[in-house]
Design brief:
Length: 372
């Protein structure tokens, strides 16, 4: 932990938590706003170490201009119980020594729930960024994490009206809920210019709009070879017209290796990319195929067609107001939607959802200060 220093009584002390890849781009803009506000806030950054590979973690700190974590719990991979329990055990002493006014957690990964639970039991206030999202599918570990973290949180910072409505239905008092918009879009807008410096397109020999981008990592899609095989059969057809680049999560690479499945011709697997290379890749794609949550939002923000290889989404606004289509893992549906996108030619980007304006982090920090 950073050296102890004199604490001003009017100072708001915030402990920010990150653990896994999709957390970094949500916390980076918040740290920047906290720093800009100078002496009003003091803050620390804890990395649980849920993601630890250079390309899953350190590369994002670098691209997003984040300071190194003050504390790295180094918990690594494991079963859900192991991972959650290890984060809890390691996080408790951190909270006991740095008694923050707020523990700020983001998203829906195991680290989010584990840290919120420890904080709530120590009677420390929890703010949850990206509160209220629901897929209504409890087989997704993230759905359990979302529901429980929202029950524990004192301040629920939501990205969209559907999230507010979900919380209302679950009996969360309205005064705990503040709609701040989508903080992931803050990072996206912040990095748009700098991502142009990335050389990923020439490195891969790709011309703009002449390729698709695939990401896959959900256990429901990658752990079962029969499901992977079905997805691959649709990709094989799409890739006849549109080559597909596939930056693969380490878990996905491992599952494909174990299954003995062969990638279809025209689908090229590459290592996971950092934030800027990946942004520069997908923003120039003809379409994105994914089971990620964040990418459904990012493609909506830039008007890139997105086929989501899931049956549900906790981000319905991307379907209602954005460029996202839910296609599941049925090969016919994937193929039909893929062909439709290819036929459609250039689509005009829809207007951005309300409060996806690059200023969500400012509203988050204002909400924290208002509650001190
Ligand atoms: C986690 C989140 C998921 C998020 C995803 C983004 C949970 C329940 N899941 O899933 O919501 O969309 O991160 O990537 O928190 N591994 C590595 N290197 C790493 C990290 C993981 O090789 O740096 C491998 C390990 O084999 C590990 C597996 O990936 O067992 C799964 O990692 P884990 O953190 O458990 O979940 P993700 O699938 O990454």
């Amino acid at each position: 932990m950073a050296a102890a220093r004199k604490i001003r009584s009017d100072e708001v002390r915030i402990l920010n938590v990150v653990g896994a890849r999709p957390n970094f781009m949500k916390v980076a803009p918040i740290l920047k706003v906290l720093d800009r506000q100078g002496g009003r806030f003091s803050h620390r950054l804890v990395h649980t170490g849920q993601h630890y590979d250079e390309r899953m973690s350190a590369a994002f700190f670098q691209d997003l201009g984040m300071p190194p974590p003050d504390i790295d719990l180094g918990i690594g991979s494991g079963t859900h119980a192991e991972q959650t329990a290890r984060v809890m055990l390691a996080f408790e002493p951190v909270l006991n020594s740095y008694r923050p006014d707020w523990v700020l957690v983001v998203g829906d990964v195991n680290s989010t729930l584990a840290c919120a639970l420890v904080a709530a039991k120590l009677h420390l206030r929890v703010a949850h960024v990206e509160a209220g999202l629901r897929s209504f599918d409890r087989r997704m570990p993230e759905e359990i994490n979302r529901i429980l973290t929202d029950q524990l949180a004192d301040l629920l910072l939501t990205p969209s009206p559907d999230a507010d409505e979900n919380l209302r239905r679950e009996g969360i008092p309205a005064e705990k809920v503040v709609r701040v918009g989508n903080v992931m879009i803050d990072s996206l807008f912040d990095q748009l210019e700098r991502a142009k410096e990335s050389t990923i397109l020439p490195r891969l020999g790709l011309a703009e709009r002449s390729f698709g981008v695939l990401t896959l990592h959900r256990p429901a899609n990658v752990d079962e070879p029969a499901t992977l095989e079905r997805v691959f059969s649709a990709l094989a057809e799409i890739a006849r017209d549109l080559p597909i680049v596939f930056p693969a999560h380490p878990r996905t690479q491992a599952r494909i290796d174990e299954s003995g499945l062969v990638l279809p011709a025209g689908v090229t697997m590459i290592e996971p990319l950092g934030y800027r290379d990946f942004l520069q890749l997908w923003r120039h794609a003809r379409m994105v195929l994914t089971d990620s949550g964040g990418l459904q939002e990012e493609t909506t923000a830039l008007g890139i067609p997105c086929l989501t290889l899931r049956e549900n989404t906790e981000r319905p606004i991307t379907v209602e107001q954005g460029t996202n289509r839910l296609v599941g893992t049925d090969p016919d549906r994937i193929l039909e939607a893929g062909r439709e996108v290819l036929r459609a030619g250039h689509e005009v980007a829809p207007p951005l959802p309300d409060l996806w304006d690059g200023r969500a982090a400012e509203r988050i920090v204002d909400a924290l200060a208002a509650w001190k």
